[in-house]
C-alpha cells in the first residue's frame, strides 16, 4: 500500500508539472511579426521546425506542443498581415469578405500542408492549433471543422491521450457551441474499462483509482466548456448518460464540479442515489461526497431533504479510516451543517472530527483543514453565548498544538467576536473562554515578535476588554481589570487600556453618586486610583507615563482624592528630567521638545485648580516644576524653554484672579483657600520675576547675528504675553514691554503687518474703560521700516 501511494504521488507530481507548463503557452512567442521580412519569417519557421524535432525526439512533449502553438501564432499573424496594407485598419471581428485572395490562398495552402501529415496525433494538434485561421475562409469554418476534428480523436487508441486531445480541442474551439463532445465523452469511459486498457494497467502495475485521477483535469475542463451557461436540462441529460454508463464515478465527479451549484443542489438526493450505486473500487465515494458538499456550500438543497442528505453523507464520511481522507471530506460538510442545522448537529460533527483526528496525533497533519472548520463555525455562529454552548468547541481548539497555528485560530475567533458582538457582556462562560484565548495570544509574544504583530494582538485583546461590563457591579468590574492586568502584562497597549478603563470606572462611580461619595464608594475610588498608580510605572514609553499620570491625577482630583492626586502630579514632575532628547514616533526618531511642550501646557491648565498641600508650602507643585524646567538640558537651537516659561506666566497670571475661570466640583482651589491674600500674591509676583529674568537671559543669548531673527520673534511673543496677561500700569512692566517692542524691530526681522495690527489692537483697547493707560503705551511704541 505504501509503495502504491509513493508511486501515485510521483505520477500526480509529474501531471501537475506538465499542467503548469501548459499554462505558460506564451513563452517565447511575443515577437513583432509585422517587421519580419519573408526571409526572416522562413528562418523563424525553420528554427521552430528544428526545435520541434529536437523536443519530440528527447521526449519533451510539452515543449513540442508549445512550439506548435508558436507556429500557429506565426501562421495566423502572417495571414492577417496579408489581408490589408495596414493591420490596424482590419477590425477584430472582420468577415471573410474583407480578406483578399492572397491571404485566403495562403491560408488554404497551410491547411493542405497539414492534411499531408500522415501521423494522426501530430496532424490533429497542428490543425487544431491553427483552427482560428478558418476565419479567413468562411464564417462557419470553425464550427464545420470541429465535428471532423472530434471524429479524428476516435482514432487515438490510448484513452488518456484522447481525453487530453479533446480538452485541447475544447480550449481552441470554446467560442463555438458543440454538444457532440458530451456523447464522445461517454464513449471514452467504455474505452477505459475495455480489456486493452485494463491489461496494460496490470502489466504496468498501476491501480485503477490512481489511473483515473489522471483523467480528472481534462474531463473537468471539457465538462466546464459543455456546462458554461448551459440550461438545466443539459444536467438532466448528463445524469442519464452517467446512469447508462453504470454511474461512472469519475464522470459523475466531473459533472458535479462543472455544472452550476444551484442545479446540483436541487438534485442532491438523485446524486446521492447515484453515488451509492457507484463502484467503490474505481473512484472513492468520499471524493464524490466531497464534490457534492462543495456544491451544497454554495447553494441550498430542498428543505425537506436537508437532514437526510447530511445523514447519508456522514454515514460514508465517518467510516473513513484514513485521517487525511476523512478531514478533507468532513471540512466541506461542516459548512453545510452550520448553514442548515442547530448547535446539536454541529456539536455532533465536531465530536466526530475530534474522535477521528486525535488518535496518533493525526491532527498535526491537518491544521489547514481544522482551521477552515473553525472559520466556518464562527462564520455561522457569531453569537458567542451560543458558540460556547457547543460542548465540543473548546475541546476542538485543544487539537491546535502548534503555537503559531493556535495563535492564528485565536486571532480569528477574537476578530469574529469584535466584529459581531454588539452589546457588552458579563456571561461567565464567554469571559472565561475568551480570557483563555486572549491569554494564548499574549503568551505567544517574545523578543522576536514583530511590533505590528504585537499591535494586532493588543488591539484584539483591548477590543475584548472594552466589551466586558458588569453593569453597576463596579467591584466585580475592577476585579476583572485586576485579573486582566496580571494576564496581559507583556503587552503595553493593553495595560494602557486597562488604566483608561479603571479611570473611566472611577468617573462612572462619581456619576452614580453625583459627586457625593459614601464611605464605601470613596474607598472604591481610592482602589481604582491605586490600581493606576501601581500600573503606570511598568510602562516603557515615557510620554505615555506622563500623560497617564496627568490623566489619572485629574480623575483622582475629580473624586476628591487630593493626596492621591498630589502623588500623581509629583510623579509626573519627577519624570520630566528623564525625557530623552529623541523619541521614536512611527518608527522614526524625532526631537521630543514639541511633545514635552504640549504635555507641560496641559499640565499647567490642571495646576490652576490643584489646591496647595497644607504641609508643602505655597505653589509647591509649580515651584517643583519650574526647578525641573530650569535644570532640563534643552537643545541649543530650541526656544521651547522660553515658550514654556511664557506659559508659566499665563498660569501665574490666572492664579492672581479673585475667582478662577474654572473649578473642580467639590474641590476648593487656591482662590478659595487664600482668598486673594497679599502673601499669596507676593509669592506669585516673586515667581513671575524669576521667570521673566530667565526669559530675558535667554533673549540676551540670541544677540548673535545668526540668531537675531529668533530673538525678534521671541521678543514679540513675550510682548504679546505681557500685553494679554500683565498689568501695564506697573511702570517696570510697562517699560519692559516697550523695550521688547523695540527689540523685536531692532534688526529689521519683524513682520511689519503683524506689528501694525498689534499696534491697532492696543489703540482699540485704549478706548475701553479702565484701559486709558494703553493710550500712553501706544504713543511709546514706534513703527520702524525695514530700511
Automatic annotation (TrEMBL):
Statement: the UniProt record of this protein carries the keyword Cell inner membrane: no
Keyword Cell division recorded: no
Major subcellular site: other
Family assignment from sequence similarity: Belongs to the VPS35L family.
Signal sequence region: none
Name under which the protein is recorded: VPS35 endosomal protein-sorting factor-like
Protein localization: Endosome
Gene Ontology terms describing biological process: endocytic recycling; protein transport
The organism's place on the tree of life at top rank: Eukaryota
GO CC terms, sorted: endosome
Species this protein is from: Buteo japonicus
Coiled coil location: 19-51
Annotated keywords: Coiled coil, Endosome, Protein transport, Transport
Amino acid at each position: 500500500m505504501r509503495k502504491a501511494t509513493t508511486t501515485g504521488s510521483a505520477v500526480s507530481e509529474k501531471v501537475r508539472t506538465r499542467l503548469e507548463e501548459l499554462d505558460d503557452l506564451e513563452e517565447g512567442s511575443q515577437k513583432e511579426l509585422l517587421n519580419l521580412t519573408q526571409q526572416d519569417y522562413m528562418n523563424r519557421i525553420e528554427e521552430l521546425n528544428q526545435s520541434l524535432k529536437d523536443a519530440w525526439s528527447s521526449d519533451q512533449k510539452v515543449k513540442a506542443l508549445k512550439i506548435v502553438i508558436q507556429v500557429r501564432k506565426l501562421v495566423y499573424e502572417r495571414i492577417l498581415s496579408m489581408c490589408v496594407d495596414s493591420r490596424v485598419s482590419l477590425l477584430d471581428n472582420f468577415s471573410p469578405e474583407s480578406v483578399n485572395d492572397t491571404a485566403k490562398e495562403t491560408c488554404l495552402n497551410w491547411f493542405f500542408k497539414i492534411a499531408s501529415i500522415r501521423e494522426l496525433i501530430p496532424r490533429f494538434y497542428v490543425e487544431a492549433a491553427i483552427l482560428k485561421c478558418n476565419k479567413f475562409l468562411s464564417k462557419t469554418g470553425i464550427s464545420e471543422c470541429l465535428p471532423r476534428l472530434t471524429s479524428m480523436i476516435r482514432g487515438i487508441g490510448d484513452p488518456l491521450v484522447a481525453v487530453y486531445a479533446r480538452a485541447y480541442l475544447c480550449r481552441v474551439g470554446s467560442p463555438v457551441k458543440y454538444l457532440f463532445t458530451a456523447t464522445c465523452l461517454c464513449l471514452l469511459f467504455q474505452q477505459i474499462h475495455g480489456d486493452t486498457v485494463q491489461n496494460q494497467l496490470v502489466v504496468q502495475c498501476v491501480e485503477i483509482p490512481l489511473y483515473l485521477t489522471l483523467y480528472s483535469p481534462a474531463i473537468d475542463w471539457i465538462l466546464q466548456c459543455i456546462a458554461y451557461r448551459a440550461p438545466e436540462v443539459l444536467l438532466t441529460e448528463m445524469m442519464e448518460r452517467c446512469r447508462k454508463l453504470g454511474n461512472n464515478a469519475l464522470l459523475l465527479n466531473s459533472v458535479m464540479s462543472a455544472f452550476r451549484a444551484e442545479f446540483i443542489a436541487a438534485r442532491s438526493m438523485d446524486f446521492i442515489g447515484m453515488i451509492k450505486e457507484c463502484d467503490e473500487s474505481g473512484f472513492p465515494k468520499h471524493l464524490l461526497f466531497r464534490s457534492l458538499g462543495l456544491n451544497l456550500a454554495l447553494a441550498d438543497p430542498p428543505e425537506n431533504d436537508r437532514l437526510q442528505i447530511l445523514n447519508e453523507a456522514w454515514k460514508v464520511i465517518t467510516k473513513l479510516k484514513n485521517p487525511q481522507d476523512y478531514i478533507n471530506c468532513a471540512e466541506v460538510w461542516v459548512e453545510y451543517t452550520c448553514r442548515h442545522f442547530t448547535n446539536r448537529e454541529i456539536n455532533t460533527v465536531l465530536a466526530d472530527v475530534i474522535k477521528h483526528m486525535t488518535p496518533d496525533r493525526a491532527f498535526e497533519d491537518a491544521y489547514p483543514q481544522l482551521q477552515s472548520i473553525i472559520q466556518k463555525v464562527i462564520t455561522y455562529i457569531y453569537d458567542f453565548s451560543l458558540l460556547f454552548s457547543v460542548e465540543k468547541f473548546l475541546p476542538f481548539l485543544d487539537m491546535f498544538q502548534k503555537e503559531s497555528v493556535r495563535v492564528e485560530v485565536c486571532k480569528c475567533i477574537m476578530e469574529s467576536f469584535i466584529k459581531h458582538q454588539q452589546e457588552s457582556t458579563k456571561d461567565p462562560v464567554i469571559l472565561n473562554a475568551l480570557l483563555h484565548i486572549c491569554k494564548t495570544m499574549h503568551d505567544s509574544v517574545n523578543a522576536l515578535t514583530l511590533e505590528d504583530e504585537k499591535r494586532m494582538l493588543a488591539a484584539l485583546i483591548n477590543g475584548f476588554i472594552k466589551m466586558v461590563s458588569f453593569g453597576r457591579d463596579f467591584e466585580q468590574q475592577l476585579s476583572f481589570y485586576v485579573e486582566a492586568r496580571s494576564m496581559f502584562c507583556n503587552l503595553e497597549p493593553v495595560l494602557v487600556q486597562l488604566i483608561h478603563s479603571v479611570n473611566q470606572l472611577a468617573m462612572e462611580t462619581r456619576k452614580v453618586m453625583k459627586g457625593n461619595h459614601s464611605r464605601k464608594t470613596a474607598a472604591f475610588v481610592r482602589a481604582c486610583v491605586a490600581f493606576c498608580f501601581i500600573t503606570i510605572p511598568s510602562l516603557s514609553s515615557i510620554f505615555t507615563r506622563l500623560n497617564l499620570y496627568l490623566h489619572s491625577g485629574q480623575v483622582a482630583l475629580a473624586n476628591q482624592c487630593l493626596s492621591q492626586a498630589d502623588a500623581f502630579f509629583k510623579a509626573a514632575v519627577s519624570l520630566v528630567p528623564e525625557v530623552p532628547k529623541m523619541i521614536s514616533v512611527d518608527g522614526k526618531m524625532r526631537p521630543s521638545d514639541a511633545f514635552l511642550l504640549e504635555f507641560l501646557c496641559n499640565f499647567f491648565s490642571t495646576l490652576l485648580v490643584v489646591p496647595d498641600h497644607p504641609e508643602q508650602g505655597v505653589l509647591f507643585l509649580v515651584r517643583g516644576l519650574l526647578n525641573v524646567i530650569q535644570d532640563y538640558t534643552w537643545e541649543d537651537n530650541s526656544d521651547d524653554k522660553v515658550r514654556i516659561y511664557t506659559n508659566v506666566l499665563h498660569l501665574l497670571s490666572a492664579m492672581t484672579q479673585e475667582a478662577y475661570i474654572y473649578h473642580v466640583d467639590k474641590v476648593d482651589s487656591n482662590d478659595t483657600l487664600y482668598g486673594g491674600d497679599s502673601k499669596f500674591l507676593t509669592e506669585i509676583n516673586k515667581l513671575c520675576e524669576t521667570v521673566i529674568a530667565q526669559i530675558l537671559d535667554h533673549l540676551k543669548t540670541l544677540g548673535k547675528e545668526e540668531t537675531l531673527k529668533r530673538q525678534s520673534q521671541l521678543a514679540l511673543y513675550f510682548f504679546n504675553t505681557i500685553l494679554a496677561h500683565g498689568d501695564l500700569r506697573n511702570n517696570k512692566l510697562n517699560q519692559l514691554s516697550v523695550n521688547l517692542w523695540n527689540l523685536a524691530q531692532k534688526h529689521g526681522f519683524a513682520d511689519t503687518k503683524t506689528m501694525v495690527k498689534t499696534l491697532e489692537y492696543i489703540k482699540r483697547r485704549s478706548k475701553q474703560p479702565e484701559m486709558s493707560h494703553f493710550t500712553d503705551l501706544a504713543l511709546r511704541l514706534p513703527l520702524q521700516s525695514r530700511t
